[in-house]
Amino acid sequence: HPMPFPHIRASAIALLVVMAAVCRPAGAQGLLSSGAADKVVVSVAARPSPARVGEMLEVSVTVAIDPGWHIYSMTRSAAETAPQPTEMALDGPGLRAVGVARQPAPLSKMDDTFGMVVESFEDEVTFTQTMLVTDAASLGSTEITATVRFMACDDRVCLPPTTVDAAGLLTVAAGPSRAEYRPAMARSSSRDTRPAASSIDDARAKGFLAYLGFAVSMGFLALLTPCVFPMIPITVSFFTKKEGLTRSQGLAQAVIYCVGIMATFTALGILLAVLFGAASIQGVAANVWVNLAIATVFVVFALNLFGAFEIRVPYKLLGFLGARSGQGAGTVGTVLMGLTFSLTSFTCTVPFVGTVLVAATKGELFWSITGMLGFSAAFASPFFLLALFPQLLASLPKSGGWLNSVKVMMGFLELAAAMKFVSNIDLVMDWGVMPRELFLAGWIAIAAVAGYYLLGKFRLPHDTPTEGVGVPRLMFSIASFSAAIYLATGLFGQPLGELDAFLPPYALADSGQATVATDAKAGAHASWLQSYPEALAEAGRSGRPIFIDFTGITCTNCRLMEKTIFARADVQEIFAEYVVVQLWTDKPTPESTANQEMQQTRFGTVALPYYALMTPDDIVIDTFEGFTRDAEAFKAFLRGGLTGAGSAARTPATEGVARALPRS
Predict the structure, then answer these.
(1) Backbone dihedral angles phi then psi of residue 132, each to the nearest 5 degrees
(2) How far is CA 302 from CA 234, 245, 410, 503, in A?
(3) Please, which residues have CB within 8 angstroms of residue 471's CB and are 6 or more apart in sequence?
(4) From the CB of residue 276, how many other CB atoms can be counted at a distance below 10 Å?
(5) pLDDT digits (tens, 9 = 90+) for 470-504
(6) How far apart are CA 565 and CA 542, in angstroms?
(7) How many other C-beta atoms lie within 10 A of the C-beta of residue 374?
(8) Higher per-residue pLDDT: 560 or 27
(9) Which of 217, 555, 566, 587 has the fewest Cβ atoms within 10 Å of its own Cβ atom?
(10) Burial of 650: CB neighbours in 10 Å, binned 0-12, 13-18, 19+
(11) Using alpha carbons only, what angle is made at residue 576 by residues 575 and 579, rounded to the nearest 5 degrees?
(12) Predicted structure pTM score
């Protein structure tokens, strides 16, 4: 049967459709409207403005969020149920992004919708990106476009991810780039530090004599570092054994020794740099066989000074040298001692040498050889006097008996020096068989035995009988026992001053290598990283600048900086403002090789120690080369980095504000 009133049925259906549309949930209405783009206002600001070609910009993208709504952070999550993170990209003619975009600390809370802890922003958030004004930028007004993709949610619903664009204006002005806005490697530091490549270039620009004088001055400065200390006893003891030489022969041998140092230091350094790269000199210093050879030389000379045996050159070699008197062999031995000196000094590559060797790899051989010769001449000059010293002692009346005691004491010092190179082998090979405590125990035993010897309690083969202990021997004996007691305090964690530079560090890191990160007894910072990518990631999360410590296993000056400067409480307070990372450059690992390449490529040197301050965007703020005893200068360097990292944020800005529009 047909239904009565059919026109009423059609009206009822139409009414139901209209009511359904009117009564839709609020969330459904949002999905049918323009979506998340209506929930935010995006503004773009560039600092400084006007800017010039070659300057760095800080571009800020501020997102104002409607009340009750929030967007998610840039942090990506591996969870499949995680919300869409916010993404941002900037573009502008003649502008290039440097590093990654940064965000402030987000709100973290449990989100039942996603079943996980999420990071979000409410009300307003500002993302920042460093950009460089390149040569392609046109003068006048230019537009910076920000592309932002995000997901907006409230307490009831999440809108689909939306991509929006906003723009701001930047003025590019004519003129040279200003120092305060240049990348740090392009500007000169106002702090007077050790020579950088720019300082060497300035000396070269003034002429040959100015450059040579600069190299000589750097050689004399290098003598103030502890790297040369091990060669003092072996130089004196070596020339003490050259008995029977006339004054002219003794003078000639001293000259040959110094010339040998200059020749081997220059030739070996330049040859290694040209053939294997500037950083190869560090590889030599950390080479197990080189350290074993040096340690063996020290031990052999010590035993020779004790009278255990005589070092004699085979007669066939004497005949080949045409030196029946042994003077030819003595000359060869002196030159070989110069080579030993050079290998020993390579354990600490000072800033000047590191930069000169980089220049050698670029084909600048004339300036590199000149610099190395001038540096090594000054470096070797005090050892010329040390080489003459034994001859002067031997010429004194009745010098036989007590002179042999001097030789024996030099032998004890050489045994102590040999332990340093054995320790280097242990560190390089990651054996862990010679910790700091065992090393110190060895030195304590040497000092105590030396004091016991000076009291005449035992005699060595070449000693003459003594009726009693004179005042000088008693005083030196007391000094030896005092040294043993002083060294013993190091077993209980007491600092030993510059002697700490020669000792293995207190603790071993997970890799087996000692680092300042685990050097708790020395008061070192507790959160040193060992990877630069990790440091960049941490700096991106925290917004803190980065402190890089380029260091080496066998770098004596590096250890001294860690013990005397890094361990200070006031320096530690400043370190807390940084993400601190320690990059080894002489370990036999791919990571160490990458660190070497980074130092040489970005900073133009292979010097150790070397320190750099970086922004979270991987921009150089400042650098500090080499060892220093001036803690105030180092603290000023660190404080300047904190100021430099934030300087761009305090400059005038030109802003562009736009309501975010959905992209088609």
Answers:
(1) -110, 135
(2) 9, 21, 7, 20
(3) none
(4) 13
(5) 888 899 999 999 999 999 998 888 888 778 878 88
(6) 25
(7) 23
(8) 560
(9) 217
(10) exposed
(11) 75
(12) 0.56
Q: How confident is the model at residue 41 (pLDDT cuts 50, 70, 90)?
A: very high
Length of the chain: 664
Lowest mean pLDDT among 430-444, 538-552, 642-656: 642-656
- 144 vs 654: CA distance, rounded Å: 11
- Domains detected in the chain: 36-181+655-662 (2.60.40.1250), 207-398 (no CATH), 516-629 (3.40.30.10)
Instruction: Enter the tokens of residue 526.
Output: 């507790």
With CA atoms as reference, report the closest residue to 596 among 433, 438, 361: 361
Place 146 in a pLDDT band, splitting at 50, 70 and 90.
Answer: very high
Q: How far apart are CA 274 and CA 341, in angstroms?
A: 21
Asked if residues 568 and 555 have their Cβ atoms less than 8 Å apart, the reply is: no
**270 close to 369: Cβ distance less than 8 angstroms:** yes
Q: Are 283 and 408 in contact (CB under 8 A)?
A: no
* Residue 85 token pair: 């993170």
The strand order across the sheet containing 610-614 reads 579-584, 546-551, 610-614, 620-625
Q: Which strand (E) or helix (H) includes residue 316?
A: helix 315-321
Alpha helices in 582-659 (DSSP H): 590-603, 631-646
Cβ–Cβ < 8 Å for 384, 252: no
List C-alpha distances in Å: 398 to 327, 454, 607, 611.
26, 18, 48, 53
Residue 334 CA to residue 484 CA, distance in Å, equals: 33
Instruction: Output phi, psi for 509, to 5 deg.
Output: -75, 180
pLDDT of amino acid 227:
64
Which residues are paired to 232 by β-bridges? none
State the angle between helix axes of 400-429 and 471-489 in degrees (0 to 180), rounded to the nearest 10.
10
Here the tokens at position 67 are: 């009340």
417-438 per-position pLDDT tens digit: 889 888 888 888 878 888 889 9
Q: Give CA–CA dist 304/325, Å, rounded.
A: 20
3 state SS for 208-260: HHHHHHHHHHHHHHHCCCHHHCCHHHHHHHHHHCCCCCCHHHHHHHHHHHHHH
CB contact at 8 A, 162 and 149: yes
